[in-house]
Amino acid sequence: MAHPKHRTSKQRRNKRRTHIKATPATLASCSNCGATAKYHTVCPECGYYRGKLAIEKEVTA
Ligand SMILES: [Zn+2]
Question: Which residues cross the membrane (predicted)?
Fold first, then answer.
């Protein structure tokens, strides 16, 4: 397996991360129920994905 030859110093690692900007995931609205869900993710409300029922909604009794 590929293996790093040298340990990255704290200074080098922190400098590398200075220009990384954390952005929240873009939210999509479900085409079936209109709830907001993450892109490429099954809707947590109704279980639909791209207009089709992907997973049956779990019945919480
Ligand atoms: Zn939905």
Answer: none
What global pTM score does this model have? 0.47
14 CA to centre of ligand 1 in angstroms: 40
Say how far apart CA 21 and CA 14 lie, in whole Å.
Answer: 13
User: In the predicted model, is pLDDT for residue 59 greater than 80?
Assistant: no
Spacing, Cα 15 to ligand 1 middle (Å): 42
The alpha carbon of 60 and the centre of ligand 1 are apart by a number of angstroms equal to: 17
Q: What does the pLDDT look like over 1-50, one tens digit per residue?
A: 899 999 999 999 999 989 877 787 788 888 888 888 888 888 888 888 88
- Domain spans of the chain, in order of start: 30-61
Query: What span, in angstroms and rounded, lies between the C-alpha atoms of 37 and 45?
Result: 9
